[in-house]
Design brief:
disordered N terminus, 2 domains, single chain, two-stranded parallel ribbon, five-stranded antiparallel beta sheet
């Protein structure tokens, strides 16, 4: 009886508390209002725990949502970058195909039917040819294309000096004169010869595996085989990056003080997009010939090119098996001042200037030309120089969004073979 009497007040208090909670909920004060209105400290603590749990859940949801949005944004950017990269690569490939078409059209002598003032002689290649025209960027909805074509046979082929019987080949003599004119010693062409020859015998100041390359901190062997690319020169003794890229060595300092240098001895013609569009609409070739100034009295200045970068004057593409093949010959219609000066022992700055002046007026086309017979011996004219080219460098750049893809290749337009192909 005592137990029932003692529990009755407690039941009444609980019933009163329940009614109070119900009233608070009915007044729409919610759980927080209910917890705040409780008189018991124990109830307040319980309500605080619930509030903390609710806040933790909300914080977790916000964190998960933020991470999801961040990952979604990263995926979207990655997909856009992948799309731009793929599109840029496609545009670069299209530019390469366009370059091949231009080279083929030039071979067929179709340049003049497309652009006025272009050399239409399919038996010569000069900087007035269709392939040498500086075209504007070709813009499309998906991006743009830039193409650049240059004649590799304006340079000296390093692989053409690879001769197991006689180091004193004509091409070796040209290479030797080139380095001497640049202020270097005979050691430099000798090191190149040792790199490409077929034996381990050291030539003069050259280098082979046992006496030099194997003694380096990171040893390797002399290749004793043709170069695969021009930048392989950086592996050859003496050829530091400073010399390879043309920032020092030889008579570099003397040339800077003399200031008798020019950017280029040839002028490329250019065609604007408006010019090409107008020609397409009118059905007549656009005129890209430079304007002649009647009052122009001063003769153009011809001098060594300012750039000493070896890749501008030396190449590794051509015919490695037949040293007198046409692909190894030097095109005097496109050769640089520095290369022309190296062709024979009798070449002088005055002779080179006259040669450049004559070819700029009209490209050479006959080995029986009176001027050529007066400066070149028969063997040089027949076996070393040419007026047309087979080997070209093509650089095609595709741009899409913020992405750029560059395809650089060296090809033989006569055979369709690629000597070099790189994508960046």
């Amino acid at each position: 009886m005592r137990k029932m009497t003692a529990s009755l007040p407690a039941l009444i208090r609980r019933l009163s508390m329940w009614r109070r909670r119900r009233a608070l909920l009915l007044e729409s004060k919610g759980l927080i209002g209910l917890f705040a209105a409780r008189g018991s400290s124990k109830d307040v603590h319980r309500g605080g725990y619930v509030l903390i749990i609710v806040m933790l859940v909300v914080t977790l949801l916000i964190s998960v949502s933020a991470e999801f949005l961040l990952n979604a944004q990263i995926n979207i950017n990655y997909m856009k970058k992948f799309k731009d990269e793929t599109q840029a690569a496609s545009l670069a490939e299209a530019g390469l195909n366009l370059s091949s078409f231009i080279l083929d059209a030039d071979t067929k002598g179709l340049g003049a039917s497309m652009l006025q003032g272009v050399n239409s002689d399919k038996n010569t290649d000069a900087y007035t040819d269709l392939w040498a025209i500086e075209l504007p960027d070709l813009t499309f909805e998906s991006g743009s294309i830039q193409i650049y074509i240059d004649d590799e046979q304006s340079k000296i082929n390093l692989n053409a000096i690879r001769n197991s019987y006689d180091v004193e080949t004509k091409y070796y003599a040209i290479l030797e004169r080139f380095f001497i004119n640049m202020g270097f010693t005979e050691d430099y062409p000798q090191a190149i010869y040792d790199w490409v020859d077929i034996n381990e015998s050291t030539l003069g100041g050259g280098a082979e595996s046992a006496d030099y390359y194997n003694t380096l901190e990171n040893p390797y062997n002399a290749k004793n085989a043709p170069f695969d690319s021009i930048d392989e020169l950086l592996l050859v003794r003496y050829f530091t990056p400073e010399i390879y890229y043309g920032y020092g060595g030889g008579n570099y300092e003397e040339e800077l003080k003399d200031n008798n240098l020019v950017e280029t001895n040839t002028v490329r013609q250019s065609a604007s997009m408006d010019m090409l569009a107008s020609a397409a609409l009118e059905g007549e070739p656009a005129d890209v010939a430079p304007d002649e100034k009647e009052d122009e009295i001063d003769k153009p200045k011809y001098a060594p090119e300012r750039s000493r970068a070896l890749s501008n004057y030396l190449r590794t593409s051509g015919n490695n098996l037949n040293f007198i093949a046409a692909a190894n010959m030097i095109n005097i219609n496109t050769a640089s001042y520095r290369v022309l000066l190296s062709l024979t022992d009798t070449m002088t700055p005055e002779t080179v200037e006259e040669l450049i002046d004559k070819r700029n007026a009209e490209p050479f086309s006959s080995k029986k030309d009176e001027f050529l017979t007066s400066i070149f011996d028969d063997e040089t004219r027949e076996k070393l120089i040419t007026f047309s080219s087979e080997v070209f460098m093509v650089k095609s750049t595709g741009l899409a969004g913020s992405h750029r893809v560059v395809i650089t290749c060296i090809l033989n337009r006569s055979t369709g073979d690629y000597y070099y192909y790189a994508i960046q």
